[in-house]
Amino acid sequence: MLGQLNENEIEDLLKQQVVGRIGCHADNTPYIVPVNYAYKDNNIYAHSAKGTKIDYMRKNPQVCFQVDQIENINKWKSVIAWGQFHEITNRKEMVDAMQEIIQHIMPQVAEEQAHPSHGFTENESDIGTSVEIILYKICLTKKTGRFEQP
């Protein structure tokens, strides 16, 4: 049976998951990339090193975000949302956003990999010296969700 997720189910799925996909478009080229994220107050919070995703979102801040929970081929939930990219430059907002991300993602990281290297640095001791971390949020303006279950 296919169906639509209601507003509460959409919110729950966005809050529960830690990996989603951003779809962005610039220079006549679409780009889709997975990201770790946290969701709060209708905003997706994420971080990145400089690269294609950031370049595209700076050029065209209108983006799409997708997240899913898949148990098997006929039991899944999926949310697609649209919104606008905003780079976070205010120091307090940067600290708050990073805390949201850390608190949301770290419980999902295996203890033997307690230092996530993605978007940070190769070594725990390098944080803040080797990679420029860009914090951003996607302010969602529209959300839709679907599901399938036997």
Helix fraction bin: 10-25%
Count of DSSP strands? 8
CATH superfamily: Electron Transport, Fmn-binding Protein, Chain A
The 3D shape can be described as globular
Q: What's the CATH topology name? A: Pnp Oxidase, Chain A
Query: Number of helical segments?
Result: 3
Briefly, what CATH class?
A: Mainly Beta
Distance between the termini: 6 Å
The SSE string, one letter per element, is EHEEEEHEEHE
What is the name of the CATH architecture?
A: Roll
In total, the number of domains comes to: 1
What is the topology?
Blueprint: E1 2-4, H1 7-16, E2 19-26, E3 29-36, E4 38-40, E5 43-48, H2 52-59, E6 62-72, E7 75-87, H3 91-105, E8 134-148
Which descriptors apply to this entry?
single chain; 150 residues; alpha+beta; Pnp Oxidase, Chain A; 8-stranded antiparallel β-sheet; 8 strands
Describe this structure in words.
The protein is of the alpha+beta class and 150 residues long. The chain has helices at residues 7-16, 52-59, 91-105, and strands at residues 2-4, 19-26, 29-36, 38-40, 43-48, 62-72, 75-87, 134-148. The protein has one domain: Pnp Oxidase, Chain A (Roll). It is built from 3 helices and 8 strands, in the order βαββββαββαβ. Strands 1, 2, 3, 4, 5, 6, 7 and 8 form an 8-stranded antiparallel sheet that branches.
